[in-house]
Amino acid sequence: MDKLKVGIIFGGRSGEHEVSLMSATSVLNYLDKDKYEPVPIGITKEGRWLTAGNPLEALKRGNIKGEGPLPVELLEKLDVVFPVLHGPFGEDGTIQGLLEMLNIPYVGAGVLGSAVGMDKGIMKMLFQQAGLPVVDYLTFLRRDWEGDRATIIDSIEKELGYPAFVKPVNLGSSVGISKATDREELEQAVDLACRFDREIIVEKFVNCREIECSVLGNDRPEASLPGEIVPHLDFYNYEAKYTDGKSDFFLPAPLSPEKTEEVREYAIRAFLAVKACGMARVDFFLDKDTGQLYVNELNTIPGFTHLSMYPKMWEITGLQYPDLLDKLIDLALERFADKQRNQISWG
């Protein structure tokens, strides 16, 4: 059989550009070359596309030559696309919309699931609608913060109190996230988050364990065994995830059988609530004092680096990295074939 041409798209215009390069490196290393012909496609931080030579190494070195416009003809020759773009302009429905327009199969959530999975505020609303517990939170716009920060601070202190976590609504990998323990730190935290997004979310602090669970599938998804992260730093921030390597990982998470099943059930319900498909990593808070499990957020393109929890959790569940990539590509083709059954004209 002919090898499937798999386009691996990485880089991009978000604050998670470097994370994307690390994820793409692992995907390219583990993709079965007997089954697939990988086609690396890079996107610079300015949004320019790289296809010639070795785009991954070019982006890593910053030695960018031969960059060009959107390579539509190249994309149309691919059998399937594997987007490894984290954050805005890659995980938020934008690249998915492009691939839908070109009618090309792709790995992961569609336009709606991707967009919802990127917006922490809308995501939490849908979780609540599905009956899933979330921590108390507030959202507000950057323009409102710049116009009247005192009123917003008063609302945060009254409704959430300290400590509180401040995050950009539309970003991942803990970019721009801070923990605030007083008013001065809160102002600094919001100012930082405003550098990365026009909408901010502030969440009530919970004395918790950080639990994660991987989900795989389309209409009938399955959940992996959960894992637990114990950050070396104050919380699981960008450095803890990708650079310092000092966080502790427990795979599987040391939970009771009942709590393990609760995590897996909530993970699947969260996946379905946002209309995700293909893959997602669902993050939880487990309150140390009460035992209450909260759904924190869902990532539709989770990290695939050597430190990433998504493939590690599937590995302990019995699915090795190359087999996981096979399954994701199969799911992309399955979903594409199902969509082709839709009638697009009347009469």
Detailed description of the structure:
With 347 residues, the protein is α+β, with helices and mostly antiparallel strands. It has three domains: 4-106, Rossmann fold (3-Layer(aba) Sandwich); 117-133 and 206-337, D-amino Acid Aminotransferase, Chain A, domain 1 (2-Layer Sandwich); 137-204, 2-Layer Sandwich (Dna Ligase, domain 1), CATH 3.30.1490. The chain contains 13 helices and 14 strands. It has helices spanning 17-30, 55-61, 72-76, 94-102, 111-118, 120-129, 142-147, 149-159, 183-194, 238-242, 257-273, 309-317, 321-339; strands at residues 4-11, 36-43, 49-50, 80-84, 137-141, 164-168, 178-180, 199-204, 208-217, 222-223, 227-230, 248-250, 278-287, 293-299. Strands 9, 10, 11, 12, 13 and 14 form a six-stranded antiparallel β-sheet that branches. The longest helix is centred in the C-terminal third of the chain and has 19 residues, at 321-339. The protein is globular and about 60 Å long. 44% of the residues are buried. The mean pLDDT is 93.
